[in-house]
Design a protein that fits this description.
Layout (H helix, E strand, L loop, with lengths): L7 H4 L13 E10 L3 H12 L5 E4 L15 E2 L7 H8 L1 H24 L11 E4 L6 H14 L4 E3 L1 H7 L8 E4 L3 E2 L2 H14 L3 E3 L6 E5 L2 E6 L2 E10 L10 H5 L2 E10 L5 H5 L5 E4 L5 E5 L5 E8 L5 H15 L8 E11 L6 E6 L2 E5 L6 H17 L19 H29 L1
Parallel strand pairs: 1-2, 1-11, 2-8, 4-13, 11-18
Antiparallel strand pairs: 3-7, 4-6, 5-6, 9-10, 10-11, 12-15, 12-16, 13-14, 14-15, 17-18
Helix pairs in contact: 2-7, 2-11, 3-4, 4-11
Length: 434
Protein backbone atom coordinates (compact mmCIF):
# COMPACT_ATOMS: atom_id res chain seq x y z
CA UNK A 1 0.00 0.00 0.00
CA UNK A 2 1.05 3.62 -0.37
CA UNK A 3 1.64 5.64 2.71
CA UNK A 4 3.54 5.45 5.95
CA UNK A 5 2.85 1.79 6.74
CA UNK A 6 4.97 0.63 3.81
CA UNK A 7 7.92 2.85 4.68
CA UNK A 8 11.37 1.84 5.84
CA UNK A 9 11.10 4.48 8.54
CA UNK A 10 8.11 2.91 10.25
CA UNK A 11 9.70 -0.53 10.00
CA UNK A 12 12.82 0.68 11.80
CA UNK A 13 11.32 2.77 14.60
CA UNK A 14 11.57 0.60 17.73
CA UNK A 15 8.97 2.55 19.72
CA UNK A 16 6.31 3.04 17.09
CA UNK A 17 3.63 3.61 19.70
CA UNK A 18 4.75 6.23 22.18
CA UNK A 19 1.66 6.14 24.32
CA UNK A 20 0.33 9.50 23.13
CA UNK A 21 -3.31 8.63 23.69
CA UNK A 22 -6.25 10.45 22.10
CA UNK A 23 -7.79 13.46 23.78
CA UNK A 24 -10.74 12.56 25.95
CA UNK A 25 -12.85 15.34 27.41
CA UNK A 26 -12.24 19.07 27.79
CA UNK A 27 -8.87 20.68 28.48
CA UNK A 28 -7.58 24.23 28.79
CA UNK A 29 -4.36 25.32 27.10
CA UNK A 30 -2.26 28.38 26.61
CA UNK A 31 -1.43 27.15 23.08
CA UNK A 32 -3.06 24.41 21.01
CA UNK A 33 -1.03 23.14 18.07
CA UNK A 34 -2.78 21.21 15.30
CA UNK A 35 -0.38 18.91 13.48
CA UNK A 36 2.29 16.50 14.74
CA UNK A 37 4.86 17.00 11.99
CA UNK A 38 8.12 18.92 12.20
CA UNK A 39 6.46 22.36 12.14
CA UNK A 40 4.08 21.58 14.98
CA UNK A 41 6.60 19.59 17.02
CA UNK A 42 9.29 22.26 16.74
CA UNK A 43 6.83 24.95 17.75
CA UNK A 44 5.80 22.87 20.77
CA UNK A 45 9.39 22.18 21.83
CA UNK A 46 10.38 25.80 21.21
CA UNK A 47 7.53 26.97 23.45
CA UNK A 48 8.48 24.51 26.18
CA UNK A 49 12.13 25.57 26.02
CA UNK A 50 10.97 29.17 26.48
CA UNK A 51 8.99 28.29 29.60
CA UNK A 52 5.48 28.29 28.10
CA UNK A 53 3.28 25.79 29.91
CA UNK A 54 -0.07 24.15 29.13
CA UNK A 55 0.79 23.46 25.49
CA UNK A 56 -1.40 20.84 23.79
CA UNK A 57 -0.57 19.24 20.44
CA UNK A 58 -3.19 17.34 18.43
CA UNK A 59 -2.25 14.85 15.69
CA UNK A 60 -4.96 13.17 13.62
CA UNK A 61 -2.82 10.07 12.93
CA UNK A 62 0.55 9.47 14.60
CA UNK A 63 3.46 11.82 15.25
CA UNK A 64 5.42 12.14 12.02
CA UNK A 65 2.67 10.58 9.90
CA UNK A 66 2.93 13.14 7.08
CA UNK A 67 5.87 14.46 5.09
CA UNK A 68 7.95 14.82 8.25
CA UNK A 69 8.09 11.05 8.65
CA UNK A 70 8.29 10.18 4.94
CA UNK A 71 10.93 12.47 3.44
CA UNK A 72 14.43 11.72 2.15
CA UNK A 73 16.12 12.74 5.40
CA UNK A 74 18.32 15.51 3.93
CA UNK A 75 19.11 18.30 6.41
CA UNK A 76 20.45 21.43 4.73
CA UNK A 77 19.76 25.13 4.46
CA UNK A 78 17.58 27.11 2.09
CA UNK A 79 14.00 27.05 0.87
CA UNK A 80 12.19 25.55 -2.09
CA UNK A 81 12.38 29.00 -3.67
CA UNK A 82 15.82 29.45 -5.14
CA UNK A 83 18.45 31.79 -3.74
CA UNK A 84 18.43 34.08 -6.78
CA UNK A 85 14.66 34.50 -6.60
CA UNK A 86 14.90 35.21 -2.89
CA UNK A 87 17.35 38.03 -3.60
CA UNK A 88 15.06 39.50 -6.23
CA UNK A 89 12.09 39.31 -3.87
CA UNK A 90 13.67 40.71 -0.72
CA UNK A 91 16.99 42.37 -1.45
CA UNK A 92 20.37 41.19 -0.17
CA UNK A 93 20.00 41.88 3.56
CA UNK A 94 16.56 40.36 4.12
CA UNK A 95 17.29 37.40 1.84
CA UNK A 96 20.52 36.66 3.69
CA UNK A 97 18.77 36.90 7.07
CA UNK A 98 16.09 34.40 6.05
CA UNK A 99 18.57 32.00 4.50
CA UNK A 100 20.76 32.25 7.62
CA UNK A 101 17.73 31.28 9.69
CA UNK A 102 17.64 27.92 7.91
CA UNK A 103 21.40 27.42 8.30
CA UNK A 104 21.01 28.09 12.02
CA UNK A 105 18.15 25.59 12.04
CA UNK A 106 20.45 22.89 10.66
CA UNK A 107 22.76 23.46 13.62
CA UNK A 108 19.82 23.52 16.02
CA UNK A 109 18.66 20.13 14.73
CA UNK A 110 22.17 18.75 15.20
CA UNK A 111 22.34 20.25 18.70
CA UNK A 112 18.94 18.84 19.68
CA UNK A 113 19.91 15.33 18.65
CA UNK A 114 22.72 15.61 21.19
CA UNK A 115 20.95 17.60 23.90
CA UNK A 116 17.98 15.24 24.01
CA UNK A 117 19.91 12.07 23.08
CA UNK A 118 17.74 11.50 20.00
CA UNK A 119 18.89 8.35 18.22
CA UNK A 120 18.07 9.17 14.61
CA UNK A 121 20.88 7.58 12.55
CA UNK A 122 22.51 10.97 11.99
CA UNK A 123 25.23 10.86 9.33
CA UNK A 124 27.48 13.93 9.32
CA UNK A 125 28.89 13.34 5.85
CA UNK A 126 27.53 16.36 3.99
CA UNK A 127 25.45 16.57 0.82
CA UNK A 128 26.62 16.50 -2.80
CA UNK A 129 24.89 18.45 -5.59
CA UNK A 130 25.91 16.47 -8.66
CA UNK A 131 25.75 17.95 -12.15
CA UNK A 132 23.67 15.79 -14.49
CA UNK A 133 24.87 17.89 -17.43
CA UNK A 134 28.31 18.69 -18.83
CA UNK A 135 28.03 22.49 -18.66
CA UNK A 136 29.49 23.50 -15.26
CA UNK A 137 28.10 27.04 -15.33
CA UNK A 138 25.06 26.24 -13.17
CA UNK A 139 27.44 25.03 -10.45
CA UNK A 140 29.77 28.02 -10.82
CA UNK A 141 26.90 30.47 -10.67
CA UNK A 142 25.33 28.95 -7.58
CA UNK A 143 28.65 28.56 -5.77
CA UNK A 144 29.46 32.23 -6.42
CA UNK A 145 25.97 33.42 -5.46
CA UNK A 146 26.03 31.52 -2.17
CA UNK A 147 29.52 32.74 -1.34
CA UNK A 148 29.04 36.41 -2.20
CA UNK A 149 25.42 36.99 -1.20
CA UNK A 150 24.81 34.48 1.56
CA UNK A 151 28.24 33.89 3.08
CA UNK A 152 27.97 30.13 2.49
CA UNK A 153 30.78 28.12 0.90
CA UNK A 154 30.06 24.96 -1.06
CA UNK A 155 33.19 23.13 -2.11
CA UNK A 156 33.92 22.45 -5.77
CA UNK A 157 34.12 18.77 -6.71
CA UNK A 158 35.84 18.12 -10.06
CA UNK A 159 34.41 15.29 -12.12
CA UNK A 160 37.29 12.96 -11.30
CA UNK A 161 36.84 13.51 -7.57
CA UNK A 162 33.06 13.09 -7.74
CA UNK A 163 33.31 9.88 -9.74
CA UNK A 164 35.85 8.50 -7.29
CA UNK A 165 33.21 8.88 -4.56
CA UNK A 166 30.01 8.15 -6.49
CA UNK A 167 30.79 5.35 -8.93
CA UNK A 168 28.76 6.34 -11.96
CA UNK A 169 29.56 7.97 -15.28
CA UNK A 170 26.23 9.80 -15.13
CA UNK A 171 27.57 12.91 -13.36
CA UNK A 172 30.11 15.54 -14.24
CA UNK A 173 31.30 18.13 -11.69
CA UNK A 174 29.57 18.76 -8.39
CA UNK A 175 29.34 20.94 -5.30
CA UNK A 176 29.73 19.66 -1.76
CA UNK A 177 27.86 21.15 1.19
CA UNK A 178 29.98 20.12 4.20
CA UNK A 179 27.70 21.47 6.94
CA UNK A 180 24.70 19.41 5.82
CA UNK A 181 23.84 15.93 7.07
CA UNK A 182 21.17 13.26 6.72
CA UNK A 183 19.13 11.28 9.22
CA UNK A 184 16.09 9.09 9.97
CA UNK A 185 13.32 11.71 10.02
CA UNK A 186 10.67 9.64 11.77
CA UNK A 187 13.02 8.73 14.62
CA UNK A 188 13.89 12.41 14.91
CA UNK A 189 10.24 13.50 14.91
CA UNK A 190 9.43 11.08 17.71
CA UNK A 191 12.54 12.17 19.59
CA UNK A 192 11.40 15.79 19.43
CA UNK A 193 7.96 14.68 20.63
CA UNK A 194 9.51 12.90 23.61
CA UNK A 195 11.62 15.95 24.43
CA UNK A 196 8.59 18.22 24.31
CA UNK A 197 6.49 15.83 26.38
CA UNK A 198 9.26 15.65 29.02
CA UNK A 199 8.94 19.44 29.39
CA UNK A 200 5.21 19.34 29.90
CA UNK A 201 3.70 19.40 26.40
CA UNK A 202 0.58 17.22 26.14
CA UNK A 203 0.57 15.27 22.86
CA UNK A 204 -2.52 13.45 21.65
CA UNK A 205 -2.32 11.10 18.67
CA UNK A 206 -5.34 9.80 16.73
CA UNK A 207 -7.06 13.07 17.61
CA UNK A 208 -8.18 14.98 14.52
CA UNK A 209 -9.24 18.58 14.99
CA UNK A 210 -12.70 18.72 13.45
CA UNK A 211 -13.73 22.30 14.19
CA UNK A 212 -12.13 25.63 15.07
CA UNK A 213 -14.13 28.53 16.43
CA UNK A 214 -13.79 31.71 18.42
CA UNK A 215 -14.33 31.41 22.17
CA UNK A 216 -14.23 34.83 23.77
CA UNK A 217 -10.71 36.22 23.28
CA UNK A 218 -9.34 32.75 22.57
CA UNK A 219 -10.18 29.73 20.47
CA UNK A 220 -12.02 26.45 20.80
CA UNK A 221 -10.72 23.37 18.98
CA UNK A 222 -13.12 20.45 18.84
CA UNK A 223 -12.06 16.82 18.41
CA UNK A 224 -14.23 13.66 18.18
CA UNK A 225 -14.02 13.01 21.93
CA UNK A 226 -12.80 16.26 23.44
CA UNK A 227 -12.36 19.99 23.18
CA UNK A 228 -9.42 22.33 23.77
CA UNK A 229 -10.03 25.87 25.02
CA UNK A 230 -6.86 27.74 24.06
CA UNK A 231 -5.59 31.29 24.20
CA UNK A 232 -3.72 30.77 20.92
CA UNK A 233 -3.77 28.15 18.15
CA UNK A 234 -1.12 27.08 15.64
CA UNK A 235 -2.18 25.33 12.43
CA UNK A 236 0.66 23.14 11.15
CA UNK A 237 -0.96 20.48 8.99
CA UNK A 238 1.21 20.58 5.85
CA UNK A 239 -0.11 18.54 2.95
CA UNK A 240 -2.66 16.72 5.12
CA UNK A 241 -5.25 19.46 5.34
CA UNK A 242 -7.51 19.67 8.36
CA UNK A 243 -10.40 21.60 6.83
CA UNK A 244 -10.49 24.07 9.71
CA UNK A 245 -10.07 27.33 7.76
CA UNK A 246 -10.96 27.58 4.08
CA UNK A 247 -8.29 30.15 3.24
CA UNK A 248 -5.57 28.03 4.88
CA UNK A 249 -6.41 24.90 2.90
CA UNK A 250 -6.88 26.94 -0.28
CA UNK A 251 -3.38 28.34 0.06
CA UNK A 252 -1.51 25.11 -0.68
CA UNK A 253 -1.37 22.25 -3.15
CA UNK A 254 -0.71 18.83 -1.63
CA UNK A 255 1.86 17.32 -4.02
CA UNK A 256 3.14 13.74 -3.82
CA UNK A 257 6.72 12.57 -3.97
CA UNK A 258 8.10 9.04 -3.94
CA UNK A 259 10.75 7.12 -2.01
CA UNK A 260 12.01 3.53 -2.00
CA UNK A 261 14.67 1.61 -0.07
CA UNK A 262 16.69 -1.35 -1.33
CA UNK A 263 17.57 -4.56 0.40
CA UNK A 264 20.79 -4.42 2.47
CA UNK A 265 23.60 -4.18 -0.07
CA UNK A 266 26.50 -5.18 2.17
CA UNK A 267 29.80 -4.78 0.30
CA UNK A 268 27.90 -3.80 -2.86
CA UNK A 269 27.21 -0.41 -1.31
CA UNK A 270 30.92 0.41 -1.53
CA UNK A 271 30.83 -0.61 -5.18
CA UNK A 272 28.48 2.28 -5.94
CA UNK A 273 29.54 4.85 -3.30
CA UNK A 274 32.81 5.46 -1.48
CA UNK A 275 31.19 8.28 0.48
CA UNK A 276 28.40 8.35 3.03
CA UNK A 277 27.21 11.76 1.81
CA UNK A 278 23.68 12.20 0.49
CA UNK A 279 23.36 13.11 -3.20
CA UNK A 280 20.92 14.98 -5.43
CA UNK A 281 21.38 16.25 -8.98
CA UNK A 282 20.97 19.48 -10.94
CA UNK A 283 17.85 18.65 -12.95
CA UNK A 284 14.54 20.23 -12.08
CA UNK A 285 13.14 16.70 -11.87
CA UNK A 286 16.06 15.46 -9.81
CA UNK A 287 16.88 12.18 -8.09
CA UNK A 288 17.95 12.19 -4.44
CA UNK A 289 19.46 9.32 -2.54
CA UNK A 290 21.57 8.42 0.45
CA UNK A 291 23.29 5.38 1.93
CA UNK A 292 21.71 4.08 5.12
CA UNK A 293 23.65 2.76 8.14
CA UNK A 294 22.44 -0.81 7.47
CA UNK A 295 23.96 -0.67 3.90
CA UNK A 296 20.67 -0.07 2.13
CA UNK A 297 20.25 2.70 -0.44
CA UNK A 298 17.33 5.10 -0.02
CA UNK A 299 16.22 6.52 -3.36
CA UNK A 300 13.68 9.27 -3.98
CA UNK A 301 12.42 11.44 -6.78
CA UNK A 302 9.55 12.57 -8.97
CA UNK A 303 6.68 14.80 -7.97
CA UNK A 304 3.08 14.31 -8.98
CA UNK A 305 -0.47 15.17 -8.07
CA UNK A 306 -1.00 11.40 -7.64
CA UNK A 307 -0.36 9.60 -4.34
CA UNK A 308 0.67 6.25 -5.86
CA UNK A 309 0.79 2.71 -4.50
CA UNK A 310 4.02 1.13 -3.30
CA UNK A 311 4.20 -1.07 -6.41
CA UNK A 312 3.80 1.93 -8.72
CA UNK A 313 6.44 3.88 -6.79
CA UNK A 314 8.90 1.01 -7.06
CA UNK A 315 8.33 0.66 -10.80
CA UNK A 316 8.92 4.37 -11.43
CA UNK A 317 11.97 4.79 -9.22
CA UNK A 318 13.72 1.53 -10.09
CA UNK A 319 14.30 2.70 -13.64
CA UNK A 320 15.59 6.04 -12.38
CA UNK A 321 18.06 4.26 -10.09
CA UNK A 322 19.42 2.08 -12.89
CA UNK A 323 20.10 5.15 -15.05
CA UNK A 324 22.64 6.17 -12.40
CA UNK A 325 23.73 2.79 -11.05
CA UNK A 326 23.15 0.11 -13.71
CA UNK A 327 25.25 -2.22 -11.54
CA UNK A 328 22.26 -2.43 -9.15
CA UNK A 329 20.11 -4.26 -11.69
CA UNK A 330 18.36 -7.11 -9.93
CA UNK A 331 18.58 -5.59 -6.43
CA UNK A 332 15.42 -6.17 -4.40
CA UNK A 333 13.34 -3.25 -3.15
CA UNK A 334 12.13 -3.83 0.41
CA UNK A 335 10.13 -0.63 0.97
CA UNK A 336 8.42 1.94 -1.23
CA UNK A 337 6.01 4.73 -0.34
CA UNK A 338 4.65 8.12 -1.27
CA UNK A 339 3.76 11.18 0.76
CA UNK A 340 2.16 14.59 0.38
CA UNK A 341 4.07 17.86 0.62
CA UNK A 342 2.36 21.25 0.78
CA UNK A 343 3.38 23.81 -1.86
CA UNK A 344 2.37 27.44 -2.17
CA UNK A 345 2.37 29.24 -5.53
CA UNK A 346 5.24 31.45 -4.37
CA UNK A 347 7.33 28.38 -3.32
CA UNK A 348 7.91 29.72 0.18
CA UNK A 349 6.55 28.71 3.59
CA UNK A 350 3.48 30.44 4.93
CA UNK A 351 4.45 31.37 8.48
CA UNK A 352 2.87 33.86 10.87
CA UNK A 353 -0.35 35.26 12.31
CA UNK A 354 -3.49 35.02 10.20
CA UNK A 355 -5.92 36.18 12.87
CA UNK A 356 -5.75 37.40 16.46
CA UNK A 357 -4.12 34.51 18.33
CA UNK A 358 -4.23 32.20 15.27
CA UNK A 359 -0.91 31.18 13.74
CA UNK A 360 0.10 29.25 10.65
CA UNK A 361 3.09 27.18 9.55
CA UNK A 362 2.72 25.32 6.24
CA UNK A 363 3.84 25.12 2.58
CA UNK A 364 7.39 23.89 3.13
CA UNK A 365 7.41 22.02 -0.17
CA UNK A 366 10.19 19.54 -0.77
CA UNK A 367 12.74 21.43 1.29
CA UNK A 368 11.25 21.38 4.73
CA UNK A 369 13.42 19.82 7.44
CA UNK A 370 15.42 22.93 8.31
CA UNK A 371 12.69 25.48 7.41
CA UNK A 372 10.15 23.74 9.66
CA UNK A 373 12.62 24.05 12.52
CA UNK A 374 13.15 27.71 11.61
CA UNK A 375 9.36 28.18 11.57
CA UNK A 376 8.99 26.54 14.97
CA UNK A 377 11.55 28.92 16.43
CA UNK A 378 9.89 31.98 14.84
CA UNK A 379 6.43 31.05 16.12
CA UNK A 380 7.60 29.97 19.56
CA UNK A 381 9.47 33.24 20.00
CA UNK A 382 6.50 35.24 18.68
CA UNK A 383 4.03 33.58 21.03
CA UNK A 384 6.29 33.51 24.08
CA UNK A 385 8.03 36.87 23.71
CA UNK A 386 6.16 38.92 21.11
CA UNK A 387 9.06 38.52 18.65
CA UNK A 388 8.06 40.00 15.29
CA UNK A 389 10.71 38.42 13.06
CA UNK A 390 8.04 36.27 11.42
CA UNK A 391 6.92 39.41 9.61
CA UNK A 392 9.95 39.07 7.34
CA UNK A 393 7.95 36.30 5.68
CA UNK A 394 4.70 38.26 5.51
CA UNK A 395 5.16 38.90 1.80
CA UNK A 396 4.74 35.17 1.24
CA UNK A 397 1.22 34.90 2.52
CA UNK A 398 -1.94 32.95 1.86
CA UNK A 399 -2.28 33.28 -1.90
CA UNK A 400 -4.78 30.95 -3.48
CA UNK A 401 -3.37 27.79 -5.05
CA UNK A 402 -6.28 27.98 -7.54
CA UNK A 403 -7.50 24.44 -6.97
CA UNK A 404 -8.35 22.29 -8.85
CA UNK A 405 -6.77 24.11 -11.79
CA UNK A 406 -3.59 24.47 -9.74
CA UNK A 407 -3.11 20.70 -9.70
CA UNK A 408 -3.23 20.61 -13.49
CA UNK A 409 -0.84 23.55 -13.74
CA UNK A 410 1.60 21.98 -11.28
CA UNK A 411 1.63 18.68 -13.16
CA UNK A 412 2.04 20.36 -16.55
CA UNK A 413 4.86 22.55 -15.20
CA UNK A 414 6.65 19.50 -13.86
CA UNK A 415 6.26 17.61 -17.14
CA UNK A 416 7.54 20.62 -19.08
CA UNK A 417 10.60 20.94 -16.83
CA UNK A 418 11.17 17.18 -17.10
CA UNK A 419 10.98 17.42 -20.90
CA UNK A 420 13.55 20.26 -20.93
CA UNK A 421 15.90 18.19 -18.75
CA UNK A 422 15.56 15.23 -21.12
CA UNK A 423 16.01 17.41 -24.21
CA UNK A 424 19.19 18.98 -22.83
CA UNK A 425 20.50 15.54 -21.92
CA UNK A 426 19.75 14.27 -25.43
CA UNK A 427 21.45 17.23 -27.07
CA UNK A 428 24.56 16.75 -24.95
CA UNK A 429 24.57 13.08 -25.94
CA UNK A 430 24.45 14.00 -29.64
CA UNK A 431 27.31 16.45 -29.13
CA UNK A 432 29.43 13.75 -27.49
CA UNK A 433 28.82 11.29 -30.32
CA UNK A 434 28.69 13.76 -33.22
Amino acid sequence: MSGLDSSYYVATVPDRELGFGPLLGPVDASVCIVGGGFAGLNTALGLAERGVRDVVLLESQRVGFGASGRNGGFVFGGFSRGEESLLQDLGPERARDLYSGTINAVELIRARTERYAIECDRVDAGVVWANWFRDPQVLRDRQQLLEQRYGVHWQWMPRERLRSLVHTERYHDGLFEPGAFHFHPLKYARGVARAAMAQGVAIHEETPAIALERAGRGWRVRTPDGVVEAEEVVLACGGYLAGLRAEVDAGVLPIATYVMVTQPLGARLDEIMSTRAAVYDTRFAFDYYRPLPDTRLLWGGRISVLDRSAAEVEKLLYGDMLKVFPQLDGVRIDHAWSGLMSYARHQMPQIGAIDDGLWLAQAFGGHGVAPTTFAGELLASAIAHGDRRWRELSGYGLVSAIKPVGFVGAQLSYWWAEFKDEWKDRMEGKTRTG
